[in-house]
Amino acid sequence: MSIWRVLLSVVLPPLAVMDRGCGSIIIVCILTLCGWVPGVIAALIILNNPKK
Prior knowledge:
Its main location: membrane. Keywords: Membrane, Transmembrane, Transmembrane helix. The chain crosses the membrane at residues 25-47. The protein is an all-alpha fold. It is 75% helix and 0% strand. The chain has one domain (3-48). Helix 1 (3-11) runs antiparallel to helix 4. The model has no long low-confidence stretch (mean pLDDT 91).
């Protein structure tokens, strides 16, 4: 995970998970609408998992 991805996930969480698939984007968007902090946490967790 690069430093740019971490910064992007803090500023705009849905944009940081664009390459992880539609489900990840939807989850992060919903959590970001509920509150900024849950969206950031979800984005960081998704970005920390290795691609399968």
